[in-house]
Each structure stands twice: as C-alpha cells, then as structure tokens.
Amino acid sequence: MSWGFLRDLLSGVNKYSTGIGRIWVAVVFIFRLLVYVAAAENIWKYEHDEFECNIRQPGCENVCFDHFFPVSHIRLWALQLIMVSTPSLLVVFHVAYRENREKHHNQKLYTNPGKIDGGLLCTYLISLILKTGFEIVFLVLFYKLYNGFQVPHLVKCDIRPCPNTVDCYISKPTEKMIFLYFLVATSCLCIVLNLSELSYLIFKYSIKCYLKRYIKKRQ
C-alpha cells in the first residue's frame, strides 16, 4: 500500500494547525507512519507462515492462529493510522469551501481563509474530538482483542479440529511486543496532544469572547 496520500494529507493540515497541532502531525508522520513503513510492517509480514504448532493435524494451525490473532496487529495499526488522520480532512475541506466561496463571490470574505475562527474553529474542534475518540477506541480494541498488550512466546490451543491441547509458538514475540508498546505509547502521546490543543483552543476562544464582552460593556 502507498502511504503517499496520508503524507500529503498531513502536510496540508499542517498549514492550518496550531503549534500543538504541528507537533501532533510530526509525531504521526515520524513516530508512527515512518516506523510503520520502515520497520513494523516487515516484522508482521510473514506472521501466519511463522506461526507453528507441535501438531500436523490439517486445519488445526489455521484455527489456532485465527483464535489468537483475530485481526493482524499490523493491519489494525494501519487502520488506526488512517482513521485518526482522516478527521483532519474536515479542516482541509472547510478551508477549501471558504476559498471557493470567496472565488464565487469575487470578493474578500475572510481575513484569512485558513485562520481558525468562527465555523472553522468548530470544525477544528470536532476533528480533534474525533481523532481523540478514534485513538481511545483502537487502544481499547487492541486491549480486548489480544487480552492486554502482550505477545506471549507460547500459546496453548484446544479448539477443534485439534485433537487435544497443542502448543503453538509465535515468531519474534519480544520484538513484536516492543513495537506494540511503542504503538500504545505514541497513541497515548497523540491523545495528550489532542486534548491539550482542544483545551488551548477552548480557553483562547473563551478569553477572546470575554474580552469582547468586557470592551463592549465598557463602551
């Protein structure tokens, strides 16, 4: 899969972000997207082929693999990357709408179409809430699917058509667990950044409204 579209999306969003938003873009691009493409994808590339059970019963190994890995870590991580990045499209679309509206009316309607105020502020806040929500949902999903953030060396399987309890071995479990912890850490960092930016924008807008009311009252 080509990740160029996600890189272009993040680059476009970077133009309209606050300082905290730019840090979020850097974290997603460097510590998540590049790590995924450069290293993590290769670790899980042959996970099914390298999953071994100490029995040759037809179908047993496949059933056991499906039970312990209902969704591949790496595919779930890819889906998470896409889902947490796409809400930023709302901001890009809103700015494009403003620019198109100015072009249609052939006059300057906004001081700066990319300035975070008015309707664009609401869109930006919604995108932050969606990104935070997706991060939390995927962390819970990882935890539920894999019984905690663990990759065991050995799993015991007694699902049919296995005739008895068999031992199955996961390839490179330590390396996979390190990347899983890295995934969780970067997700938590992104949640903190999103919540910080959300709080900053709400606080900034509240102060701005208060000052406007105060000046109006004084006048």
Structurally, the number of domains stands at 1
| CATH fourth-tier homologous superfamily | Gap junction channel protein cysteine-rich domain
Per DSSP E runs of 2 or more residues, the count of β-strands stands at 3
Categorize the overall geometry: elongated
Membrane topology: Multi-pass membrane protein
Main location: other
Subcellular location: Cell junction, Gap junction; Cell membrane
Function: One gap junction consists of a cluster of closely packed pairs of transmembrane channels, the connexons, through which materials of low MW diffuse from one cell to a neighboring cell.
How would you summarize what this structure contains?
This protein is mostly helical and 219 residues long. It is built from seven helices and three strands; from the N terminus they run ααβααααββα.
Account of the protein in words:
By secondary structure, the protein is mainly alpha-helical. It has one domain (3-218): Gap junction channel protein cysteine-rich domain (de novo design (two linked rop proteins)), CATH 1.20.1440.80. 68% of the residues lie in helices and 5% in strands. The protein contains seven helices and three strands, in the order ααβααααββα. It has helices at residues 4-14, 19-43, 60-68, 73-85, 88-105, 118-145, 173-218, and strands at residues 52-53, 154-157, 166-169. A three-stranded antiparallel sheet has the order 1-3-2, with helices on one face. Helix 1 packs across helix 5 (88-105). The longest helix has 46 residues, at 173-218. The chain is elongated, with a radius of gyration of 23 Å. It starts with a helix and ends with a helix. The model has no long low-confidence stretch (mean pLDDT 82).
